[in-house]
Amino acid sequence: MNPPVPSMASTDLAREWSIVHILSMWYRDHHRRLPWRETRDPYRIWVSETMLQQTRVETVIPYYHAFLERFPDVAALAASDEEAVLKCWQGLGYYSRARNLHRAARLVVERHGGRIPDDPRAFLALPGVGAYTAGAVMSIAFHRPIPAVDGNVLRVVARLENLCDPVDHPTVRRRIERLVEGWLQQAEPAVFTQALMELGAVVCTPRSPRCGACPVRSACRAHRAGTAEDLPKRAPKRPRRQKVVLALWCETGEGVVVEQRPADGLLGGMWQLPAHELDADALDAPSDAGRDAESGGAAEAAGPVRRALMDCLQRVFPGTACHAVRFVEVARERHVFTHLEWSVRLFRPEGMPAGARVDRTRFRVVCRDELGGLPWPRVYEKLISGALQMLI
Ligand code: SF4
């Protein structure tokens, strides 16, 4: 049975009723069947919401299944080591999500007896749990009227309300959170939270919103004002920092030299080839260009690129006289992060002196067949596959 329509004495009330109840009814009838919508298990919902941050649904689905097969509950996740978790996350990006989820699972076991807390403050205290994830898990798994406001929801509400200020401004964001909170008080939280998300994903899309198919268009102020396509407004973005990463393919008789990135920070805990990172503008174009080897055509490092590679090589083989080594480029990739762009160039040192010893306190030597067992960032996966093809 449909909920009663409020007295039409207030058009605002009628409009709110329409947003809350028509949207909820639309969701019940039309939502996409997604694996995390088949469960009320807070752990599974938490995993899905973590994976879905900055990542498309189609990309997440196979990872979600594989992750839950490997770590079916909080206890299994808490008991695993970080490397296994990162391996399962490999290719999904934003690896701090995986590391935080793993740390948080351990705290859930230690502090909460393995039960995910249904108290938002306790849940928010876990690593990696921000206001959005807390709102999503609290409302979907525990039916608590706590808003989950991500980019999709900001867009939908900015249009419903015809808000023309930048939605990334804290006061506008807070206003949107308060509006959603008010709607949730009148709704079934699990349904309404997902209804807003679903509307943003399939109807009120960033470009060309399908207003003709929208269940709440009669309540939508941007639709009425003809501003839907222009909203939401955002503050201008700062350009991404450009970095050049110079990596080394050092292969000894025992295998390939690899290193683990520091636990915290970008791609923390993932593995990489020995590398040196530089600001792109620190390389001056003519000397950085390298020169083609006179006969073969493979680019050989020169200038600051050579100096940086030499520093890196000396870290790998401390105390070895490497001054006569040449660095020949074997692969190149670009990778774009949210605020940063990497241009990664992989070089192979040629002419290494015999008997050079790897610093085993900082690096690991892995035979080619075992490289695939480590968790690599996608950009290194591609580089290694390129290098292996070239260096067969
Ligand atoms: S009417 Fe158009 S702009 Fe308004 S909520 Fe629906 S799809 Fe979005």
Helix content: 40-55%
**Could you name the CATH homologous superfamily of the largest domain?**
Hypothetical protein, domain 2
Q: How many helices?
A: 15
Shape: elongated
Described by strand count, sense and barrel closure, the largest sheet is: 4 strands, mixed
Number of strands: 9
Weakly predicted, low-confidence segments: 286-297
| Number of separate domains | 2
Side by side, the strands of the main sheet go 4-1-8-7
Task: Spell out which ligands are present.
Answer: iron/sulfur cluster
Q: Could you tell me the mean pLDDT?
A: 91
Order of helices and strands: HHHHHHHHHHHHEEEEHEEHEEEH
Cα-atom radius of gyration: 26 Å
CATH class term of the largest domain: Mainly Alpha
How far the N terminus sits from the C terminus, by CA atoms, comes to 68 Å
Structural class: alpha+beta
**Could you name the CATH topology of the largest domain?**
Endonuclease III, domain 1
Which percent band covers the strand fraction?
Answer: 5-15%
Q: What is the CATH-assigned architecture of the largest domain?
A: Orthogonal Bundle
